[in-house]
Amino acid sequence: MVAAKRTSKLPSLALNPNAEVVLGKRYFLKDFDGKPLEDARGLFWRVASAVASEEGKYGESPYTADELAREFYTVMTNWKFLPNSPTLMNAGTDLGQLSACFVLPVGDSIEEIFDAVKHAAMIHKSGGGTGFSFSRLRPKDSRVGSTGGVASGPLSFLRIFNTATEQIKQGGTRRGANMGILRVDHPDILDFIKAKEREGEFNNFNLSVGLTEEFMKAVEKDEEYPLLMPGSGEEKSRLKAREVFELLVQKAWESGDPGIVFLDRINRDNPTPDQGDMESTNPCGEQPLLPYEACNLGSINLSAFFKPGTANAPEDGIDWEELRRVVHLAVRFLDNVIDASRFPLDRIAETVHTNRKIGLGVMGWADLLYLLKIPYDSQAALNLAEKVMGFIREEGRVGSQILAKERGPFPAYPTSIFAQKGLGPYRNATVTTIAPTGTLSIIAGCSSGIEPLFALCFTRNVMDGEKLVEVNPYFEQALKDASCHSPKLMESVAAKGSIASFEYLPEDIRKVFVTAMDIEPVWHLRMQAAFQLYTDNAVSKTVNLPADATQDEIRRIYWMAYELGCKGVTVYRDGCKSAQVLSTGEGSREAEESADSASHVRARPDVVYGFTQKVATGHGLMYVTINEVDGHPFEVFATIGKSGRSTTAKAEAIGRLISLALRSGIEVEQIVKQIKGIGGEVPVFQRGKHGQVQSIPDGIAWVLENRYLKSKNPEYVVNGLGAQHCPECDEILIFQEGCHICPSCAFTKCG
Fold first, then answer.
1. Which residues 6+ apart lie within 8 Å of 337 measured at CB?
2. What CA–CA distance (Å, rounded) separates 59 from 220?
3. How far is CA 2 from CA 45, 49, 92, 116, in A?
4. What's the DSSP call for residue 3?
5. CA nearest neighbour of 26 among 442, 447, 631
6. Is 295:359 a contact under the CB 8 Å cutoff?
7. Which of 107, 151, 291, 546 gives 20 to 30 Å between its CA and that of 355?
8. Dist. CA 300–CA 664, nearest whole Å
9. What's the pLDDT score for residue 682?
């Protein structure tokens, strides 16, 4: 906080409009009334000075703390490098928890299970996400020796973790996110694979099946494989490997869940095998970790290293010397973050300081390809991906060796694979990770991670009824250079999101400016594999598939991921959930037309849970009961005491009609708009600050609005028959890097 007072001497900062919104909403320190205590310069100086202040612990450093703070500030505000969100939010504050990724063990006892729940709550509160393996838990219906009872199995406890997460809001800015993994040889694996058959189940978890090479070989040979009892390793039963693999493919086709991770491959790259196996990853899958381990991440904006001018080869368009300098600086930054961070558990702090893992990744990859005029779906792009990531890992390790000379290697180095192979010494057990950068890329004004753009142009709602067409700047400049730009064309692109079908545009523009849904799924996977080749940890990437993709295509993607050396894979078929994610104006219109013409009403489950709210009306006290399914309102009952049959009938009729609307996929917001403010003959005032209730429908609207529209706990606003919207700005959400995110305000349920 003190450091922020020195920002008057810092150069002014150029922020894109989206970054201003995101920083103001999610990152600035605020007072108790929610008013910002800093601006963008203050934020970045707070972070830079807090992280650089750790430099004083090491006498061999070539920097003073103040010199390094200015270097850190400059590299961040030039949008060349940004650390993960918890560092931006918490560095220089009393909270001081700066890591994004944690893995906690889940042992096979009630005490260990609920310790994990408690520890996860502490991590979510401090701004981190958690990964768990439930593979140690005995299967359902197993005998519990200590009590003589019967075990309920991993899924029952997964439900408890999910519910606990629902109640916690991370640091006031980020909702808790989780990864749940179960080994493919666990006896409850079939139930786990089918866990998300009902939409909304386990909504705070990404789920992945941990595949083994033994299983994959059994799939290839069409053989059975054993299901093993946790702990003893005793064979309980056998399954046909291909049938299990086909079920995985089917469920991924239906909903995108579960994903898959290759456990043997992850552990072959475990730099400290003497400390145990890595059995889980962070929520989006890019960071395998040991139990009680955490990792802090950061990303380099590759588009900031484009070197204008005539290039004889693609690599000539990259400023390699500046990239080398920034990589070394970023490694120093991330290593300092380890020292600056206050971890939620002593056990985590001990493990982190033993291995000192960092994860330096990239963003702006699609933008760099646009600048270099290289199609994403080309061999040239794959070759450049390997060259760029190979360079970053090589220089990252050089930077880690420099720090080892100044500060000493990570304490577990003598028993690590590096010491065994005569490599290093290194300061950090891992250096590179490719993480999701949805929010960071909005701040930096670049494309996200290594993903292609989801749309070249889209329409943003900026005010009541006012729309603004937002265009990728490199695409817009290419059109101007080709004398093709026009407002009418921009409207057409905004309606489609893509120019693949615009045959009147120059072919070279159509080949270079491709979007996620233009690209054949195999190219998504090949790009992931190209970056994985030089990534110590793993790669966050979504293989996007069109709505008409077949299960055969998903099967091919899964097998290619295994053959090409990926550590896991996430697929998402457009429209695979009933709440379809759309990205363009044309798609939105189709969804609206579909919703208008649809007559599907969701069936009522046998058991539902809800709440009852008392509301004072001019006809007496009204009791509004709202039952929920998967956290969303499903049905409404309104009763009024001794008010007479006519009034009772009206209340019942209104409740029935609202219930029908909710079960038909109509959003709460639309219902409230229709019934809020309807006048009655006997308006009354609610106690406190609730204002006037004018009628029975107005009272019901008040209950719905206060419960679902004014909550500070963001949830998806879902139209069950159409698009999935952001709860904060109403823009349509997209699915990339393993999570639904808002391209406008950076809302994400994955933290």
1. 51, 83, 87, 91, 98, 99, 296, 358
2. 56
3. 10, 10, 9, 36
4. G
5. 442
6. yes
7. 107
8. 45
9. 63
The owner of tokens 């219930």 is: 659
Q: How many CB atoms lie within 10 A of CB 239?
A: 19
* Residue 335 CB contacts under 8 Å (≥ 6 apart), including other chains: 356, 358, 400, 403, 407, 427, 428
Q: How far apart, in whole angstroms, are the C-alpha atoms of residue 143 and residue 268?
A: 34
Listed as ranges, residues in the chain with pLDDT below 70 are 1-8, 145-148, 169-175, 199, 310-311, 459-469, 577-600, 641-644, 681-692, 710-725, 727-730, 744, 749-751
Of 536, 312, 309, nearest to 432 by C-alpha is 536
In DSSP terms, which residues pair with 300 in a beta bridge? 81, 362
Q: Residue for token digits 């990792």?
A: 295
Residue whose entry in the numeric block shows the structure tokens 């918490």:
90
Query: Looking at residue 731, what DSSP letter applies?
Result: P
Distance separating alpha carbons of residues 528 and 509, to the nearest angstrom: 24
Helix axes 379-407, 320-340, angle to 10 degrees: 50
Helix ranges restricted to H, 167-319: 189-193, 213-221, 241-255, 263-268
CA angle 297, 383, 425 (to 5 degrees): 45
| Nearest Cα to Cα of residue 456 among 438, 476, 437 | 476
Could you give the C-alpha distances from 464 to 89, 460, 468, 532, 717, in angstroms and in order? Answer: 31, 11, 12, 45, 18
- Catalytic residue chosen out of the listed positions 54, 90, 279, 284: 284
Query: Any idea what the Cα angle at residue 711 is, between residues 708 and 713, rounded to 5°?
Result: 110
Q: Which residue has the tokens 């823009």?
A: 731
Q: Of these residues, 54, 71, 286, 553, which one is catalytic?
A: 286
Backbone angles phi, psi at 466, to 5 degrees: -95, 135
Distance between CA 250 and CA 264 in Å, rounded?
24
**pLDDT at position 719:** 33
DSSP assignments along 677-743, one per residue: T---SS-EEPSTT--EE-SHHHHHHHHHIIIIIS-SS---EE-TTSBEE-TTT-PBPEEETTEEE-T
Task: Please report the beta strands in 445-598, taking only residues with DSSP state E, as ranges in sequence order.
Answer: 457-463, 466-471, 542-545, 568-573
Residue 65 to residue 53: CA distance in whole angstroms = 5
Pairing assessment for the beta strands 692-693 and 717-718 based on DSSP bridges: unpaired
Please tell me the distance from the alpha carbon of residue 301 to that of residue 447, in angstroms, as a whole number.
Answer: 9
What amino acid occupies position 387?
Answer: K
Q: Read off the tokens for 424.
A: 């290093």
Look up residue 458 and give its two tokens.
Answer: 């889209």
Beta-carbon contacts of 84 under 8 Å, excluding residues fewer than 6 positions away, are 98, 99, 100, 296, 297, 298, 435, 440
Q: Respond yes or no: is residue 282 known to be catalytic.
A: yes
Q: Alpha carbon of 405 to those of 60, 184, 339, 415: distances in Å?
A: 8, 43, 17, 18
* Token pair belonging to 60: 């061999």
Task: Could you list the beta-strand ranges (E) of 127-204.
Answer: 129-133, 143-144, 149-150, 169-170, 174-175, 178-183
H/E/C letters for each residue in 624-652?
EEEEEECCEEEEEEEEECCCCHHHHHHHH
pLDDT of 715 reads 36
C-alpha gyration radius of the chain: 27
**Cα-based distances in Å from 142 to 97, 149, 153, 156, 511:** 39, 8, 8, 13, 57
Cis peptide bond N-terminal to 344, omega within 30: no
Taking alpha carbons only, the member of 130, 262, 290 closest to residue 751 is 130
Q: Quick one: pLDDT at residue 582?
A: 30
pLDDT at 691: 56
Please answer whether residues 441 and 449 qualify as being in contact, where contact means their C-beta atoms are separated by less than 8 angstroms. yes
H/E element, 236 = strand 235-240
Closest CA to 274 of 407, 476, 180, 412: 412
Residues 6 or more apart whose Cβ sits within 8 Å of residue 128: 86, 97, 99, 100, 101, 102, 170, 294, 344, 751
Residues 90, 282, 472, 719: which is the catalytic one? 282
The answer to whether 106 and 136 have CB atoms below 8 angstroms apart is yes
| The pLDDT of residue 641 | 67
